[in-house]
Amino acid sequence: MIDMFTLHSASANPTLVSLIYTAILAAVLSGAVAWVYEKTFHGLSYSRNFVQSMVLASMVAATIMQAIGDSIARGLGMMGALAIVRFRTNFKDPKDLIFLFAAIAAGIASGVYAWGVAAGGTLAFCLVAVILHKADIGSHRAFDGLLRFTIGSPAQARVVLEAAMQEHLRHFALISLREVAGGTSLDYSYQIKLKKGHDAAGLLKDLSQVTTLGGLHFMMQESTTEL
User: Fold this and answer.
1) Predicted TM-score (pTM) above 0.85
2) What is residue 186's predicted lDDT score, i.e. its pLDDT?
3) Do 133 and 57 meet the contact criterion of CB atoms below 8 Å apart?
4) Tell me: the pLDDT tens digits for 139-179?
5) How far apart are CA 23 and CA 110, in angstroms?
6) Which domains are assigned to the chain?
7) Taking the chain, what is the end-to-end CA distance rounded to the nearest angstrom?
8) Buried b (16+ CB within 10 A) or exposed e, 108-131
9) Using one digit for the tens of pLDDT, what is the confidence trace for 96-133?
10) Residue 17 CB: number of other CB atoms within 10 A?
11) CA 181: distance to chain centroid?
12) Closest among 30, 35, 31, 29 to 133, alpha carbons compared
């Protein structure tokens, strides 16, 4: 019986079986990292292309490491070739970069035939990522989204506005207030947390009853829509 974890050591001429195993393992492990990223994603700009890129980057890393093998000359040549490529993708969230590194690390470990390290490291990374997500570590207070509107006569609308927000919201925090329309109106931006059993549609319906309120807009904090 072939032991997948001791089948081959890094060399300049890997066997066909080891090449197949390496490609499959890199795809499976990076796929697990991508799946965990999708399930634990927080933010407004989810990208399907980024998730697929993690899997592809892992397989590219595995291929490069297999091509280099134990050859120093190949390694130097590969460094020179890759130096020509310029990656200009900006990561808005450091967590995205960490997940990409995890996928690439799985590919590198698979490419040098450290399959036990690749599998164990990827499993540990995914497990910790899920635990951090479930425990909500690092989040002082989670909000559901951003509420923004403009009021022409704040004093007259304050009673209806506060009543609607108290009815539907568990928490809300004012994050921005500015004058618009030459100082005749005020633009408000709130981070809000809805009460259990309440939805954004009900809140917007009640707020729309304020005659001097305009530009009503609600943006979800956690969006699964690709922007």
Assistant:
1) no
2) 78
3) no
4) 555 666 787 878 776 666 666 777 777 777 877 777 877 77
5) 8
6) 16-135 (no CATH), 145-220 (3.30.70.260)
7) 48
8) bbbbbbbbebbbebbeebbeebee
9) 888 989 998 998 888 888 888 899 999 999 999 999 88
10) 12
11) 37
12) 35
Phi, psi at 10, each rounded to 5°: -60, 130
Tokens of 159: 């009673």
Contact residues for 184 (Cβ-Cβ < 8 A; gap 6+) = 152
Residues 147, 167: Cα–Cα separation, whole Å: 15
Contact 23, 115 (CB under 8 A): no
Burial of 6 (0-12, 13-18, 19+ CB in 10 A): exposed
What is the CB neighbour count within 10 angstroms for residue 204? 16
d(CA 150, CA 141): 25
Residue/partner pairs of 154-161 with CB below 8 Å, 24 or more apart: 154/186, 156/212, 157/210, 157/211, 157/212, 157/213, 160/209, 160/210, 161/207, 161/210, 161/213
How far is CA 181 from each of CA 48, 147, 151, 185, rounded to the nearest angstrom?
Answer: 40, 20, 11, 6
Which candidate, 214, 177, 170, places its Cα nearest to that of 192?
Answer: 170
